[in-house]
Specification:
heterodimer, A: about 90 residues, 3 helices, about 5% strand, flat, B: about 425 residues, alpha/beta, Spore Coat Polysaccharide Biosynthesis Protein SpsA, Chain A, 8-stranded mixed sheet, about 50% helix
């Protein structure tokens, strides 16, 4: 049996609500006052269709439209690059 | 002796969970790495413009069928190469009448009415009926509550220029996401599944999955496979594996997007997930050995295929790890566990479940530019635990039906109320 079972139970009783609050507080705030942009906008327009043997449809850059933070992603992927190639 | 046996079982289930954990993290990192690369323009070869049949199964969908058919009429694909077949599957509401109105306005829209005597037996049955009337080289499927991009047919069909492609799948986006907590959580799950999971499986050459809608097949492949299996609840998963076992591939097209109306209450969520879980388990029993023995699948496809087939058993594995792991905390550990000290952090992961899918959701939301919705991710713990009894019931029901040799799966249809209309921006 684990020693100090009583103290362990007391710690669990005290710490568990605190952990739960920390874990779910952001979610409760978002549910209470939603600030999310809502459903993702699906692309509609085809700005240009060229009538050649190979047609190119330019799709608008969704990431730029939504002010996508490419610099942060680049930093994260630079870190990932040191990992072995995961593609089989 | 008993303790050692429990520990061995516990380590086994932990190893299973670690396998899924590694898989999910690989997927997340793969998509992150791809996001770094410059976005490539979609190239469409105008010489490849096959005839397309679109199947729309509809049973009591009067609130949403008009919206979809109006959208179908706006598709940019040449209408002289389109055939749209609405399968009015023994509807008792105005679904058939609404579909007939569109059929009278647009020559390329047809309606197949099924009566109670031969209809209402589930989606697979309706799709097979529609498929008999399909004449297109490519057969696409859309559920009645969906709302696609105008260019979705071009984006999906271009993949079939590769003769090795047997099926395609597009991305599903939840339309009525802001409606309530259920729809927001379902939207999160969709983001993880479609933005990260499916895309990574496609990029890595693994088993991309046909999801039953917003996708389709090469007609000749579907005909050789004899259509949908009406005995399987997850007919889409079943077809996915039959396509791969036949030597073809499924391609996922992440920018072929379509809105869907997600379930908006917990009862509907439970019914839908029960159907998915039981159907998936049916596919597991049906295809696992075939996947292992197939000469058309590479080793990595076999591994991923088996993990995919068994994914709905994972909530049961988590439950087993709770049942075994909690008592083990109170027993003196054996020499076996003493030697495996690293089992402590592994045990922690097992206790709280597999967090890796939550990382998928988080990264998917970030890549979509939806950082605020990431705040809701901790709530997915509840859906994770909610899925445990759902999957347990699905497994028990399936076992009982197998023992009794009466596997009559009843299709419980999801009701659609057209709640997403207010979110459509034209």
């Amino acid at each position: 049996m684990i020693p100090n079972l009583t103290s362990m139970i007391i710690i669990l009783i005290v710490a568990t609500p605190i952990l739960i609050l920390i874990l779910f507080l952001p979610a409760l705030l978002e549910l209470k006052k939603p600030k999310d942009r809502g459903p993702r906008m699906i692309m509609e327009s085809i700005p240009e269709v060229k009538t050649r043997t190979v047609h190119v449809i330019h799709i608008a850059n969704i990431e730029k439209e939504q002010k996508f933070d490419s610099s942060l992603i680049q930093t994260m992927t630079k870190i990932i690059e040191v990992l072995p190639n995961l593609e089989v | 002796m008993i303790i050692e046996a429990l520990e061995v079982v516990f380590l086994f289930v932990t190893a299973l969970m670690i396998a899924y954990l590694i898989r999910h993290y690989i997927f997340t990192l793969t998509v992150l790495r791809k996001a770094k690369k410059a976005k490539v323009d979609v190239v469409v070869n105008a010489k490849y413009e096959p005839t397309v049949s679109i199947l729309i199964p509809a049973r009591n969908e009067e609130k949403v069928i008009g919206r979809l058919l109006q959208r179908i009429a706006e598709l940019t694909y040449p209408h002289d190469k389109l055939q749209v077949i609405v399968i009015d599957d023994a509807s008792s509401d105005s679904t058939g009448r609404i579909a007939d109105e569109y059929s009278s306005k647009y020559a390329f829209i047809e309606v197949l009415h099924r009566e109670n005597s031969n209809g209402g037996r589930g989606k697979a049955s309706a799709m097979n009926a529609g498929f008999k009337c399909a004449t297109g080289e490519i057969v696409l499927c859309f559920d009645a509550d969906y709302y696609p991009q105008k260019v979705i047919v071009e984006k999906l069909t271009k993949e079939f220029a590769d003769p090795h492609v047997g099926a395609v799948q597009g991305r599903v986006v939840v339309l009525n996401e802001p409606q309530n907590m259920v729809t927001r959580l379902v939207a999160l799950e969709r983001i993880g599944g479609y933005r990260v999971d499916q895309e990574a499986r496609d990029d890595l050459g693994l088993i991309a999955q046909f999801g039953g809608t917003v996708g389709g097949f090469r007609r000749s492949v579907l005909a050789s496979l004899r259509g949908w299996d009406e005995s399987i609840l997850a007919e889409d998963t079943d077809l996915t594996f039959r396509v791969y076992l036949a030597g073809y591939k499924v391609r996922y097209v992440v920018d072929a997007e379509c809105y869907e109306e997600a379930v908006d209450n917990w009862k509907a969520y439970r019914q839908q997930r029960y159907r998915w879980a039981r159907g998936h388990m049916q596919c597991c029993f049906k295809h696992s050995l075939k996947v292992l023995k197939s000469k058309n699948l590479r080793a990595k496809e076999k591994v991923d295929g088996l993990l995919l087939l068994n994914v709905y058993f994972m909530p049961l594995v988590v439950l087993l790890s709770f049942i075994i792991g909690i008592p083990l905390i109170f027993f003196e550990s054996s020499k076996l566990v003493g030697a495996l000290w690293f089992s402590v952090p592994i045990s922690f992961y097992s206790f709280v479940g597999n967090f890796a899918p939550f990382f998928e959701v988080g990264i998917g939301a970030y890549l979509d530019g939806r950082t605020r919705t990431q705040w809701l991710i901790p709530l997915l713990i509840f859906t994770f635990f909610y899925n445990i009894p759902i999957c347990a019931k699905a497994f028990l029901d399936l076992l009982v039906s197998k023992i009794k040799r009466k596997d009559r799966s009843i299709w419980v249809k999801t009701s659609h109320l057209g709640n997403g209309n207010c979110y459509i921006v034209n």
